[in-house]
Design brief:
Elements (H helix, E strand, L loop, with lengths): L7 H13 L8 H8 L5 H12 L1 H6 L2 H8 L3 H10 L5 H17 L16 H22 L2 H12 L4 E5 L2 H15 L4 E4 L2 H9 L6 E5 L6 H12 L3 E6 L5 H5 L2 E4 L10 H4 L1 H18 L1 H26 L1
Parallel strand pairs: 1-2, 1-3, 3-4, 4-5
Helix pairs in contact: 1-7, 3-5, 3-6, 5-6, 8-15, 9-15, 10-15, 11-12, 15-16
Length: 317
Amino acid sequence: MSEPEMDGAAATAVVDSLVADQGQPSDGVLLRVRSLLPEFTGALRRVAEQVLTDPARASRATIVELAERSGTSPATVTRFCRALGFDGYADLRLGIAAETGRARSAGWTVDIGREIQPGDPLARVLGQIMAADTRAMHDTAALLDLAEVERAAVAIAVAPRVNIFGASGSALVGEEMQFSLHRIGVPVWAWTDVHNGLASAALSRPGDVALGISHSGETGETIELLAEASSRGATTIALTSFPKSPLAELADIVLLTATQATTFRPDALSARHPQLVVLDLLYVAVAQRTHERSHAAFQVTAQAVHGHKAAKDGHSS
């Protein structure tokens, strides 16, 4: 049985008390909605999109108002609430309001869901991007399973070979990870060409690691490459924003990210910074577990390029 509706004043009072409680954990309601968005279809998806478009307004709306704005019915909104794990609409409404309230108290004074207009001044655009990225970092930290990061770090630290697969923007992120791991002596390759990647994946053996990067988890080439490596016995890791995606379901270890899309930066582009943060954490975790080797590798590589740096500095002077 769903809980009775609250008026705006009552809801605001409860939200204020939640925000004032510094020990209150993040509800992650909006993060849950974004993560489940690909699973929603039809009317449920319209409700989800309405909530994500203007969370603050959704937190003040009655169930009838939210249904009207999304072109659905109160029964659909109730189903949406239950899909998110809430008993009724009052719980969903308070969860959204508490989350948007904490965002304001944390200093995110701009409306993250607001569309950036072509004529907006750069100061306004900068604030929008900073707010979105900051929120994405916080959501990713809340979403990330550190036990999975630990498992991935242990596997990479002892792997005879590490393959990294990704396409388009994910390929750039993969190359950054390849550079970092290479500097500490990890035998790692980043593949963007499908044919070369498949050849390398086919040579995988038990003990090797394959890391597939895809925001959506639905990039066909990345799924194919990870599946080939898995079939050869490699430990597979997926870095994605969707835990129920084909890539995530294929992988042995799943590392999740969260995004905050803005105008001109859709989800796939907005995922880049959270992906880099997760991979940076993974890189540091590997370096910790291979400290002596990593330290030696840093010294050797620094010495190798020192002459070029000195020549450059001398030329500039």
